[in-house]
Amino acid sequence: MKCAPVVTALVLLAPVVGARQQEPADIVFTNGKVYTANDKQARAEAVAIKGNKFVFVGSNGGARKFTGAGTKVIDLHGAAVFPGFTDAHMHLSGVGAREMTLNLEGTKSLDEFLALVKARVDQARPGQWVTGRGWIETFWKPPVFPTRQDLDRIAPSNPVVLERADGHASVANSAALRLAGITRDTRPPAGGAINKDASGEPTGMLIDRAQGLVGRLVPPETEAELDEQIIKGVQREVGLGWTQIQDAHGTWNDVERLRRLYRDGKIKIRIYKNITGPGADANRLIDQGPVLGEFDGRLTVRNIKVVMDGALGSRGAALLAPYSDDPRTSGLITTDTVALMPMLVAALKKGIQVSTHSIGDRGNRLTLDFYERAMKEVPPDQRAIKEPRWRDEHSQIVNPADIPRFKTLGVIASMQPSHAIGDLYFAPSRLGMERLKGAYAWETFIKLGVPVPGGSDAPVERGEPMIEFYAAVARKDLAGHSGEGWHPEEKVTREQALKMFTIWPAFAAFEEQQRGSIEPGKLADLTILSQDIMSVPELDIPKTKALLTVVNGEIVYGTVP
Questions:
Q1: What is the CA radius of gyration of the chain?
Q2: Are 355 and 332 in contact (CB under 8 A)?
Q3: Are 227 and 241 in contact (CB under 8 A)?
Q4: How many CB atoms lie within 10 A of CB 265?
């Protein structure tokens, strides 16, 4: 596997590229600062689109040759133009659900968290479930998990269950625990944990698969609500400048919902949809083969998503040694490892991509071990695709000895920069300083020649492309601060960061010949921003907004100047 080379210079190429096509374009953008993510022509000032593809990239003068009576000419007045940004790892329905339910993102203290929950409880009917997501205790003082007793004070009767931001833990009140039959004697399911206090009583914290003990009792959303989650999620994404989202979980029911919403014209973003595995849905994808480019290239289903371990914040990430701040645990393995190997072998034979959530150093090592075993069992001449481009999703805490294995095995390190600027407040206490040497190692992977497609993991994080870009190039929090163990040498250049959200996600989706850079013949996706993120001061990057979002040659967000 080849990693696209880093752009080392940004120069404006005046000659016309793609000038053979003289038929008038549908849209011509002029007077822009165009960053193409194409090393052969890194900069331009004008772009022409015919149908759903670029037909010209070059100078304003050259673009005039593609202007006819019916051409819409848009003067960008110096705005910055980029290949359509891709979120290489997010959860679409979760983003929509966050918009529709109690959003606890950004709560700065336990009291603020409880105040928001109380306001929702006060609106609820007697006995009605209260649910929400987005809290994270690491910024609270003290940074400790909430408990059922905390929730009982504001919700003595209504059952309450609230997901942590990472989705790998929830806190429930006593009413919810009673309905679920959870007592001091309840054994957690495999791949889960029920946290208990010093006296052996449940604290209300349910980790990974144990969340299902309560979650199964929450009334399911209606079909209309599930549709609205997707629609609201997509509206938010295109408004932020994302043109493709790589949706990290799913079922065939989800795929049918997306198909219906596409047919009805209610969503227009590109979606690279994952199917959750191992299991029946994953087996169906293997048996029937991938779905490629439905709805004019907008919907692709060719990836199985596995979850190897939990999350670092909830101490579910699987570590090779115990947690530094809780030696009683080394985290959790959350997948069915017995079913995993035959699934991997079958996927290799049929050309199905596999992505595995791996956060802890043990989780990452196990993922690489399973991938290596499968690749040895199915050599290249027996595979449907010789270069399978399997992915390690998150690749957060990797033992330095395992990093070269990504290159050797051809595994893509799919990473989310914002995790570092949030996690590094608590990662030193969870891991100790020594284990941080292989943490969030973007630049190490890139120098090794491993592509690093960038994502946001929304709604675990806020899901904003400008925060992700900033985190990658600054490796500081949003106030510009860093701390011990943050390893600033792992930050990336702006040119590398641009590739993290454009051409490398395209490569990770087998689409680098169709999209990911601004070149004649490629699909016409653009993200046009209010500031030039390639040159503004670092702290100004997160202040940048999307002016226009173009998908398949159509403006799907923004107002034409």
A1: 24
A2: no
A3: no
A4: 7
- The answer to whether 270 touches 245, Cβ cutoff 8 Å, is yes
CATH of 96-215, one of 3.90.79.10, 3.50.50.60, 3.30.70.60, 3.10.310.70: 3.10.310.70
pLDDT over 90, % of the chain = 89
Are residues 290 and 255 in contact, defined by beta-carbon separation less than 8 angstroms?
Answer: no
Alpha-carbon span 489 to 414, nearest angstrom: 19
Rounded to 5°, the CA angle 554-557-560 comes to 80
Q: Where are the domains of the chain?
A: 1-84+517-561, 96-215
Distance of CA 236 to the CA centre of its chain: 14
Contacts of residue 216, defined as CB under 8 A and 6 or more positions apart, other chains included, come to: none
In three-state form (DSSP H/G/I as H, E/B as E, the rest C), the secondary structure along 234-289 is HHHHHHHCEEEEEECCCCHHHHHHHHHHHHCCCCCCEEEEEEECCCHHHHHHHHHC
- Other beta carbons within 10 angstroms of residue 478's beta carbon come to 16
Residue 240, token pair as written in the block? 């932020």
For residue 82, report the phi and psi dihedrals to the nearest 5 degrees.
-135, 155
Enumerate residues 6+ apart whose C-beta is below 8 A from 253: none
User: Cα–Cα distance between 201 and 183 in angstroms, integer?
Assistant: 7
**Average pLDDT of the segment spanning 527-541:** 98
Other C-beta atoms lying within 10 Å of the C-beta of residue 73: 15
pLDDT of 19 higher than 80 = no
Residues in the chain: 561
CATH 2.30.40.10 fits 1-84+517-561, yes or no: yes
Burial 77-98 (b: 16+ CB within 10 A, else e): eebbbbbbbbbbbbbbbbbbbb
Question: What pLDDT is stored for residue 14 in this prediction?
Answer: 40
Q: Which of 501, 532, 529 is nearest to 516 (CA)?
A: 501
SS (H, E, C) 340-404: HHHHHHHHHHHCCEEEEEECCHHHHHHHHHHHHHHHHHCCHHHCCCCCCCCEEEECCECCHHHHH
Give the C-alpha separation, 170 to 166, whole Å: 9
- CA dihedral of 60, 61, 67, 72, whole degrees rounded to 10: 20
The pLDDT mean for the chain works out to 94
Give the model confidence (pLDDT) of 267-312 as tens digits: 999 999 999 999 999 999 999 999 999 999 999 999 999 999 999 9
Predicted structure pTM score: 0.88
